[in-house]
Design the sequence.
């Protein structure tokens, strides 16, 4: 029998919370009978929804709080005045050990700031990073990319830490012992890029036994699946992510427009439906919901604020998997191996 896992939920975080959150928790509960949920938020709203969707009484407990962190609230204000909010209390449950992970669809900046202050960063780590999962053109192979916006500027040490954390994260999610790691750059040549990127590349090369570093990768390599993990500073990573999302929406809109105004395209579309449905399933953004704040002394997962119940369920499942595999402890061990006692190839 699997050991019980406790997941803390910010039930008020998200565009359509708490309904979508509770519906997502219900889906996750149906698939994971060994998981217990701590729901933080307005009990008067949560209770009737939980009963309506059929959430079993023995799989959750509600902690009532009236305060909610607003979507446009500044992180500094959230940290200063939000200690009675559903977000802070959900995170605090991880700090006290009552829960193994927290999931929130609320304000990203506030969640990052609160998680960092409440949980603290792993000893020896300079900065945490936001890691996101994206599909690639290779069947059944996703890519983990970090940082996605937590750190606009990074030095070589930060990039090395991100490479280690991303490698451990990918290993846990997909079971690949030595996931390949690439540094995002403006070219694949060793002389390209800023000094900190070249310095990080040099150190990672010297530690190939511990991090499967394959060299520089470019923007077009992200979707091509050239490496399992793509490492960058938060500014470049966020721009790359938004560019990919924007391109996907452009293709979708353009396809609809062409089909709408062409009789032949409409006829051809009928025959393409089975293939398009497969593509839609494979590229479904809900499957990739749940960005992880790597580098903290606890598992904190950010769901997209506009995610539906299925998307929120994926974020919860991500948190469950990371909690079960003791992500934080594994990151600590590998950081100590490389950052504190770097190894140099003698060959």
Sequence:
């Amino acid at each position: 029998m699997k050991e019980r896992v406790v997941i803390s939920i910010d039930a008020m975080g998200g565009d359509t919370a708490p309904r979508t959150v509770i519906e997502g928790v219900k889906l996750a509960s149906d698939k994971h009978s060994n998981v217990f949920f701590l729901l933080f938020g307005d009990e008067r709203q949560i209770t009737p929804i939980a009963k309506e969707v059929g959430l079993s009484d023995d799989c959750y407990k509600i902690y009532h709080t009236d305060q909610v962190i607003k979507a446009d609230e500044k992180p500094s204000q959230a940290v200063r005045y939000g200690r009675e909010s559903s977000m802070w209390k959900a995170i605090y449950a991880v700090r006290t050990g009552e829960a193994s992970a927290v999931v929130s669809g609320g304000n990203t900046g506030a969640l990052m700031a609160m998680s960092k202050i409440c949980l603290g960063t792993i000893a020896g780590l300079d900065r945490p990073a936001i890691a996101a999962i994206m599909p690639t053109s290779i069947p059944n192979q996703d890519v983990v990319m970090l940082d996605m916006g937590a750190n606009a500027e990074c030095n070589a040490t930060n990039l090395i830490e991100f490479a280690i954390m991303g490698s451990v994260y990918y290993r846990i999610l997909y079971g690949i012992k030595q996931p390949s790691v690439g540094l995002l750059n403006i070219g694949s040549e060793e002389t390209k890029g800023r000094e900190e990127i070249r310095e990080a590349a040099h150190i990672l090369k010297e530690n190939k036994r511990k991090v499967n570093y394959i060299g520089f990768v470019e923007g077009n390599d992200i979707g091509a699946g050239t490496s399992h993990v793509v490492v960058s500073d938060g500014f470049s990573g966020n721009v790359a992510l938004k560019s990919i999302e924007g391109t996907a929406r452009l293709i979708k809109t353009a396809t609809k427009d062409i089909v709408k105004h062409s009789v032949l395209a409409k006829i051809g579309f009928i025959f393409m439906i089975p293939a398009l449905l497969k593509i839609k399933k494979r590229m479904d953004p809900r499957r990739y919901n749940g960005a992880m704040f790597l580098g903290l002394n606890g598992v904190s997962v950010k769901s997209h604020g506009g995610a539906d119940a299925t998307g929120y369920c994926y974020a919860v499942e991500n948190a469950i998997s990371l909690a079960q595999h003791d992500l934080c402890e594994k990151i600590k061990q590998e950081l100590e191996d490389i950052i504190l006692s770097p190894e140099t190839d003698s060959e």
